[in-house]
Amino acid sequence: MDKTKAVKIAVIGGSGLYKFDHLTPIKEIYPETPWGYPSSKIVIVEDSRGSQIAFLSRHGAGHKYNPSEVPSRANIAALKHIGVEVIIAFSAVGSLREEIKHQDFVLPDQIIDRTKGIRPSTYFESGIVAHTTFADPFCSSLAEIIYSHRHCLGTNITLHHNKTLVCIEGPAFSTRAESHLYRSWGCDVINMSALPEAKLAKEAEISYQMICMSTDYDCWKQDEESVSVEVVVSNLNKNAENAKKLFEEILPDLEKA
């Protein structure tokens, strides 16, 4: 049997998170799907217990895809093809709440879609029609596992849960008016990557949970510098080690789930 097909857990790494140093690479695959090739080669890595995990860089090697260009259908289809049943997706987010500080982590449970319909977002087209429930876009049991390990992040970093994420088109950041609008809607964090990734995982019947890493206050907070790539990357680099630490902590529980 092809060992690659036994891989049950996948990590999709976002901006600034391209590998997990404590995991040993054993294989790279680059499967073609009916929707093209994934963003990058899928790296199969192994932990100290011999379990295999698939790692996929959302934006590709060298960050070559902007959020609107990410081949999400190929990404999810490729992971499904190798037998993935659980996806942990990391993403940078802007905070829309004072209490969600730079470098805090967030587990969203809801999404508001502010993409513009230019991203291919379903497998059910061209004569194949199905309607998938999307009331709960993330997996609550995965969120519970992750939240139970929040103490590994230390006392200076909070892991927030049950928060609402608004996904915008990008690649431009929000206007100030939009940022205040999203706050008035009850949104807590903002990114450009949750959709259609979460929706496609639901269609593929893969359990999916995003772990968000706060890098900035978008542009609503008057006493903060407006969000920029430099601010995001700086805080992402600081977050990377904590992201790796958190994943290492949750991995044994994911393997048992």
UniProtKB/TrEMBL annotation:
Amino acids binding substrate: M192, D216, Y217, D218
Enzymatic reactions: S-methyl-5'-thioadenosine + phosphate = 5-(methylsulfanyl)-alpha-D-ribose 1-phosphate + adenine
Pathway info: Amino-acid biosynthesis; L-methionine biosynthesis via salvage pathway; S-methyl-5-thio-alpha-D-ribose 1-phosphate from S-methyl-5'-thioadenosine (phosphorylase route): step 1/1
Binding of phosphate, residues: S15, R58, H59, S91, A92, S193
InterPro entries associated with the record: MTAP, Nucleoside_phosphorylase_d, Nucleoside_phosphorylase_sf, Purine_phosphorylase-2_CS
GO cellular component assignments: cytosol; nucleus
Keyword Cytoplasm set for record: yes
Family annotation (PROSITE patterns): PNP_MTAP_2
Pfam families from the UniProt entry: PNP_UDP_1 (PF01048)
Residues in Nucleoside phosphorylase domain copies: 8-251
Entry's localization field: Cytoplasm; Nucleus
Alphabetic keyword roster: Cytoplasm, Glycosyltransferase, Nucleus, Purine salvage, Transferase
EC number: 2.4.2.28
GO terms under biological process: L-methionine salvage from methylthioadenosine; purine ribonucleoside salvage
Subunit organization: Homotrimer.
PANTHER family the record matches: S-METHYL-5'-THIOADENOSINE PHOSPHORYLASE
Family: Belongs to the PNP/MTAP phosphorylase family. MTAP subfamily.
Record function comment: Catalyzes the reversible phosphorylation of S-methyl-5'-thioadenosine (MTA) to adenine and 5-methylthioribose-1-phosphate. Involved in the breakdown of MTA, a major by-product of polyamine biosynthesis. Responsible for the first step in the methionine salvage pathway after MTA has been generated from S-adenosylmethionine. Has broad substrate specificity with 6-aminopurine nucleosides as preferred substrates.
Protein name: S-methyl-5'-thioadenosine phosphorylase
